[in-house]
Amino acid sequence: MRVKTVGPIGAKIMFVGEASGEHEDNCGRPFEGFAGKTLTGLMSQANINRNEVLITNVFKTRPPGNRVSWFFLDKECTMVKPEFRDDIEQLKQDIQFHKPNIVVALGNTALYALYGEKIISKFRGYILNSTLVPGQKLIATYHPQNINWEWKNHFPMILDLKKALRNSDTPDIPVDNRILKYDVSADEFINYCEKFVEDGCDISLDVETLQPGTHVTILGLAPSPDFAVSITLIDGRMPTLSYTKEKQVWNAVGQVTKNCPMIMQNGSYDAGVLLHNNGVYVRDLKFDTLIAAHICFPEMPRDLGFIASIVLDVPPWKHLANQNKAYYNAGDCAATFEIARRLEKQLKQTDQWEQFLFEMAEIEPALMMQIQGVKINKEVASELTAECDRITQDCDEKLQVITGRKINYNSPKQLQQLLYIDMGLPPQFKKRKSVNEPRKISADKKAIKRLKRDHKDNPMFDLLLNYKQYNKLRQFVSVETDENDYVYTSYNVTGKKFDADNGTDDDWRKSFGRWSSSQSVILPYGSGNLQNIPEVARKIYTAPEGYVFLSGDLVQAEAVVVAYYIGDNTLKKLFRDRLNEPDPEKKKKYDVHKYTGSIMFRKQQDDVSKEERRIGKTLRHASNYAAGPTVIADELGCSLLEAKKLLLIYYNSCPQLGLWHSRIQAELRQTRVLTNLYGRKHRFLDRWGDPLFRSAYSYKPQSSVGDHLNIGLTQFYNKYCHEVRMIFQLHDAFYLLVKEGTEEYWARKMYEECVRTIYINDEPMTIEMDFKVGPSWGESEDFPVWIEYEEDERKSRYVRV
DNA sequence: GATTTTACGTA
DNA sequence: CGTACGTAAAATCT
Fold it and tell me: Closest nucleotide to A411's CA, by C1' atom?
């Protein structure tokens, strides 16, 4: 049965879907089946009443197998079969008859029919002018069915629908009055720069770069959302200006960044390139739209195109990037300026301005650490590399004797063949996220450990584990350095690697306020991420003659935060006593894990064995985040039954934990927004269920500790960056490179900036900081410094939880 | 040659 | 059914 367009005459919004499914075919009305239910739900979340809108499909009949490609001649679905062209004509006439203020295209097919473009992810959320009915305002979003498959598109789709509603008052398509000047002459560009300096106005800046070397090819500036100017410095691979002229341009840009408050999208990159390559220092990065987006939409993509699509009412421009880079760059500058205005408003309205400011303040220390880099000891590095090679070769040879064949142990496929087919061992499976997923066979470390447990007499499993360990270690110790033996990392304040721009982006990033570390695009030397270097490999990072590494780490930080959240009085006292204990030897007495062991095994703390302490540590850690018995069993190497017993004892000894977990769930149910100890808000967008809860349990402690350290680190940097060098940030610790003999002086300064009190329900919580000193990152010893801590009102925060 | 999968290091 | 992050090598696709 052909479906009709349904809805009231005079409706302001018209939804256009794809084609009929089974239900639609039966009743002749669009969106009556499963996808229809989803659509109704989405509409109501966007405050749209389904009865007040028009709904139709592009194709009026049901394709065999529900495949849309049936309507097209080609696989890419770009040529409609002649017999279905009437459907398109019908759609056109329907729109012209009803004259809705806005049409909403649902999915690729509708977007193609109405606008001639195929990739919904690139065009969704923008205000478009329909090509099928020129002058008709159009917005595209996902097909409801897609939301059922890809949950991460759920929230953007609701935002799109809300935008459609906002734009349904009038049929007017916003006119683009922007003046985007591109490829201006050097002199004209310099004139603009001088004018901007004279006005002292906010300026948004954006650079395009060329690899390798990260040379600036195009530079754009905008003093408002309506005007932008860009200059091309490198065309292809050739400079466009003479040396003298280009120098004049850089001088002019330098004056702008010296005198004007700057606005950027990911300023850490642009400012880093300008500083490192062009000697241009950005004095006042006033507003970074990446940071703002991270605070406002912590689970959303943060590229400029996406932010624009949810914050602005503009036509899409990102797909033009390859046609005219200079024009596109100017467009980016203008868009960044406007996004900054809108997000500033939103940050203030949602009471997150303070959080925004302290995240902004983290940019400079993060950037400086990136550009300074760390020196590698090449001798130690090559020794360790040789050792890795020796051990892996040795394992390889011994394994060859045992198994009688030579395979690549790094190959999951070959290893699975060897273990589960040739040797006939019981296949091991990877843990699934949900029971609906198919079980996946695996030959990873965990699998081998399990096999080892059941075949204690066979030495091959130890050899395999050894091989894997040293093979992995090799990648951390054999690193490429620059000509001065330095390596670098990019510390990313918003904790995110950028999503691929090919539309096939993987999981979204949660980013709980911790920094991430990744390979620097500006200085691509070293293993990239410096936050996952194994202990042994840290030996290659040695301090120069006369210097040592000094680290300050927050003691048991997450455990402290959890203890206060759940209200565990014994633990609170334990942490407090440790804080007030001047004797470093006696401090060791206050050991959470020994305490846990003593409860679990009902004995005095002094009688707790090493093994019992380990069990206590594992249990506390795992159960804070609601881990299950399988994980405990794997971690402890015990049976599932034993793990279950241990967990039961643990939960009985700590009933507050379960209550806290329930409270988090209740909090989620309200608004899905959780707030940490520093006021950082996070809206959780996952489907309702266990993975959501687990993620939420870890949010408050993890992000609170992250913010706690980063605030201290930033304060420390602002005071002392001219006197001392900051080297690493490891989530709950940071490292300095200090002159021998000044360790204690700097330890005290770190303590002053990092140790502060948060009052939780009027109770003071203080996380202690301990210090370590060593000639290399890998060889350090405790460096006890007794600092009497006075709770200082000025440094404190009050929170209710 | 480009993309996806598998594995594994840290807090 | 800890979570979060980034990278390398193998496997697979085109």
Answer: C10
pLDDT single digits (tens) A22-69: 899 999 999 999 999 999 999 999 999 999 999 999 999 999 888 888
No. of helices (H) and no. of strands (E), chain A: 29, 29
Pairing between β-strand A102-106 and β-strand A13-17 as defined by DSSP bridges: parallel
Nucleotide nearest to A518 (CA to C1'): C6
Whole-angstrom Cα distance, residue A345 to residue A104?
A: 27
**CB-proximal positions of chain C, under 7 Å:** 1-12
Of the CA atoms within 13 Å of residue A46, those in its CB half-sphere come to 23
Q: Measuring CA to CA, how many Å separate A187 from each of A190, A192, A221, A231, A241?
A: 5, 9, 15, 10, 11
- Tokens standing for A580? 């007030």
pLDDT for the residue numbered A441:
87
Separation between the CA of A504 and the C1’ of B2 (whole angstroms): 13
Q: Cis omega (within 30 of 0) on the bond before A156?
A: no
Which tens digits make up the pLDDT trace of A67-112?
A: 888 898 887 788 899 999 999 999 999 999 999 999 999 999 999 9
Give CA–CA dist A34/A580, Å, rounded: 62
> Which of A162, A166, A169 has the alpha carbon at shortest distance from A42?
A162
**Strand C within 7 Å of which CB atoms in A 588-627?**
621-622, 625-627
Which residues does strand B reach (CB under 7 angstroms)? Answer: A 412, 416, 430, 440, 442-446, 468-469, 472-473, 502, 504, 529, 531-535, 730-733
Question: What's the CA–C1' distance between A539 and C9, in Å?
Answer: 25
Strand duo A203-210 + A262-264: pairing: parallel
- Torsion A5-A7-A11-A12 (CA) sign: negative
Nucleic strand C contacts from chain A, 394-413, CB < 7 Å: 408, 410-413
pTM: 0.93
Nearest-angstrom CA–CA distance, A726 and A453: 44
Q: Are A55 and A31 in contact (CB under 8 A)?
A: yes
Average pLDDT, chain A: 91
**Residue with CA nearest B5 C1'?**
A412
